[in-house]
């Protein structure tokens, strides 16, 4: 299992691991992926939610398609949103060039930031930046914003 593999790597402590490399094995939906540890063919896939990203409703199909084109069957690096990572938890995904997938989806208008929108979603360290990215995408009418501009909530 990925969590066990991560636990036995270098530090032995999940909470201290930063930018762990994994392979995206499945796009579950527009905000959820399954990942496996690279070079561990027997590793069980672990489900992760993209931290700070909201893709429900009409946003989900477009975001899912973008993720399939961009990261499916590719290596990404993850950092954890929670202080103690767990399967099914929220994570930040980074492309090999260093771009943050979560922020990129919002910036390009393929997803919305969870800030102030999802009551059950805990605050995250990039919440203010994600809100700014969403505001800019909405103002510039990127991605799905021309269709769903009324979904934008100004959260300055």
What is the residue-averaged pLDDT?
78
Number of helices: 5
Q: Helical amount among residues, as a percent range?
A: 25-40%
Radius of gyration: 15 Å
What kind of assembly state do the chains in view correspond to?
A: single chain
* Main β-sheet, spatial strand arrangement: 1-2-3-6-5
What's this model, at a glance?
With 156 residues, this protein is an alpha+beta fold.
Protein model, in words:
The protein is α+β, with helices and mostly antiparallel strands and 156 residues long. It has helices at 2-8, 59-70, 101-107, 127-139, 145-148; strands spanning 20-29, 32-36, 46-50, 53-54, 75-80, 90-94, 112-113. The chain has a five-stranded mixed β-barrel. The chain has a two-stranded antiparallel sheet with strand order 4-7. Residues 1-17 and 152-156 have low confidence and may be disordered.
List keywords for this structure.
single chain, disordered N terminus, five-stranded mixed beta barrel, 156 residues, alpha+beta, 5 helices
Task: List the SSEs and their pairings.
Blueprint: H1 2-8, E1 20-29, E2 32-36, E3 46-50, E4 53-54, H2 59-70, E5 75-80, E6 90-94, H3 101-107, E7 112-113, H4 127-139, H5 145-148
